[in-house]
Design goal:
With about 375 residues, the chain is an alpha+beta fold. The protein folds into two domains: about 230 residues, no CATH class; about 70 residues, no CATH class. The protein is about 70% helix and about 10% strand. Strands 1-2-3-4-5-6 form a six-stranded antiparallel β-sheet. It is elongated. The N and C termini lie far apart (about 75 Å).
């Protein structure tokens, strides 16, 4: 009986210890949830204020860029519109399709200017003084507006990698219609060498002229193919007229090579196929720039953080001036390094990343001067 009584006492003691242990941690979890619920309205208010501040300043910068784009394009093409009797609706359609390629270049600068204006605007507001008094750090404030500026980064990536090449193909015929010219010169070199077939192609808009690198009698001296045709045409050695040539699928093994007139208008996924069948440092640089250029905006803003919070003497104008100079310097560095990468003097990825890394390093060096 004593042994049974002793076992019951030990069981009761063990259950009390377990219940105390569990109740202790339950109370901790409940207190953490209640404190999180109390902080939630504060976070929502901070996020709403930050998002409104960001969208207001970034939207103003983007509106300025769009207005400048419309005015410059119209001033450039007004004479051609009148001379070729082209409707203004055609011009507006061209301007709308030309916006994605334009925005893919402008969005990093808009991210910089919008961010600097938002930071300088917040620095002179009473809300910022209250945030500093409440112990909110700059990192917490930036994290509160992640949905706002993160959506701009996603938009930049989508425009540069996917929408801009598609819009380029739609804007180019309208541009030729306005100018009355046969074709627009491509931004990249118009030569394509396919080692698998041994043919060097000259890309002439929708037509391609091929020069087989083979001995006389083994192949045609000249090949001609138009986009969309199943069969090509060939000029034999000593001949005076074109004959039926090889099929397009034999001359261009990948569908991506047949769908796009040039590498500039090729989709990003198709551009990988171009690089696979015809390796070229210029096309590799184009691929990396489409994939990585969305990082330019955050790197620019990080480099300008010490100048984004104006001093009482400087004001917001000084911060905006420094940002404009930084944007011009970045564009110059980007042209320098990308040109070296296209020439094969630098690896393609480094040619795109080097300007951003230089800006990031400059921001790290000046980070000790940041005063919020």
């Amino acid at each position: 009986m004593k042994a049974v009584t002793r076992l019951d006492e030990m069981r009761h003691q063990g259950s009390e210890i377990c219940l105390g242990f569990v109740s202790k941690y339950l109370k901790t979890i409940i207190s953490w949830i209640s404190s999180f619920r109390k902080r939630q309205p504060r976070r929502e208010i901070l996020a709403a204020w930050t998002a409104g501040l960001w969208w207001r300043n970034w939207g103003g910068v983007m509106g300025t860029f769009l207005a400048l784009s419309l005015l410059i394009e119209y001033a450039t093409l007004a004479g051609d519109l009148a001379h070729n009797h082209v409707s203004i609706l055609v011009f507006l359609k061209y301007w709308a399709w030309n916006l994605p390629p334009f925005l893919s270049v402008v969005l990093p600068l808009a991210f910089l200017l919008g961010g600097v204006l938002a930071l300088s605007d917040a620095a002179v507001s009473r809300e910022w003084v209250a945030l500093r008094a409440g112990g909110t750090s700059l990192a917490q404030w930036c994290r509160a507006g992640f949905k706002a500026w993160g959506s701009v980064l996603v938009l930049t990536l989508v425009l540069q990698a996917f929408l801009a090449p598609f819009a380029y193909r739609r804007a180019d015929p309208l541009y030729r219609q306005i100018l009355g010219r046969p074709a627009r010169s491509a931004a990249s070199k118009p030569w394509l060498y396919l080692g698998s077939t041994g043919v060097v192609w000259f890309l002439d808009g929708s037509a391609r002229w091929g020069f087989p690198l083979k001995a006389p009698g083994e192949a045609f001296i000249l090949l001609k193919w138009r986009m969309g045709d199943v069969q090509s045409e060939g000029l034999p050695w000593g001949g005076m007229a074109f004959e039926e040539g090889p099929q397009a699928s034999r001359l261009f093994p990948s569908r991506a090579l047949r769908d796009a007139a040039s590498a500039d208008s090729a989709a990003t996924l198709d551009l990988f196929q171009w690089q696979r069948w015809a390796p070229d440092p210029e096309r590799a640089t184009l691929i990396w720039s489409r994939i990585l250029n969305w990082l330019a905006g955050p790197c620019l803003l990080f480099a300008m953080l010490p100048y984004a919070f104006p001093s009482p003497r400087g004001g917001r104008g000084a911060a905006l001036g420094y940002s404009l100079v930084a944007g011009l310097v970045f564009m110059g560095l980007q042209a320098l390094f990308s040109g070296a990468a296209k020439a094969g003097d630098l690896p393609s990825a480094w040619g795109v990343l080097c300007p951003m890394l230089l800006l990031f390093g400059f921001g790290l060096l000046r980070l000790n001067r940041l005063r919020t």
